[in-house]
Amino acid sequence: GEFDDGAVIIVQGVTYDISGTRTNRTRDLTAVLNAIYRWPVSSTVNAFGAVTFKTENGGYENAIGALKVPGQSRSLDDYSLIDLRAGANFGSVSASVFVQNAADETVFLQNVLGNEYFGSRRIIGGEISVKFGG
């Protein structure tokens, strides 16, 4: 998105006209690709494996980023993440293990008043679910 005509922002006592500039924390590109493969192990068990690739590129951390103000315009970091999952279905029971952010990438998200925010580091876990009824 873009800021409306007449939009202004004051940064360290300086007024900037941000009319028509892009909205902060928006990305030039966000893409997600998912792939899953399922196969029968027996007449009652089906296994599966899945991979998710996510990437985000471009954009600015703050509202005056597109104005290229020295010392004030901060570009967002580009990043790519891979998540993995493997499991099996046993009738009405499903069990899986997963790894989010498999490469353990440190993703800087933004800085607000000197406080830096980062995405989640690698998470490893498991899930068990049971379907009830039809």
Measured as a percent range, the helix fraction is under 10%
In quaternary terms, these chains amount to single chain
Instruction: Give the amount of beta strand, in percent.
Output: over 45%
| Major sheet details | 5 strands, antiparallel
Topology, number of strands: 9
Order of helices and strands: EEEEEEEEE
Per DSSP, the total helix count is 0
> Which spans have pLDDT < 50 for at least 5 consecutive residues?
none
| Distance N to C terminus | 45 Å
SSE topology sketch:
Blueprint: E1 8-11, E2 14-17, E3 29-40, E4 45-57, E5 79-90, E6 93-100, E7 108-112, E8 115-118, E9 123-130
Antiparallel strand pairs: 1-2, 3-4, 4-5, 5-6, 6-9, 7-8
Explain this structure to me?
- The protein is mainly β and 134 residues long.
- It is 0% helix and 52% strand.
- A hairpin with a 2-residue loop joins strand 1 (8-11) and strand 2.
Please summarize what this structure is.
This protein is an all-beta fold. It has no helices and nine strands.
Structure keywords:
134 residues; mainly beta; five-stranded antiparallel beta sheet; 9 strands
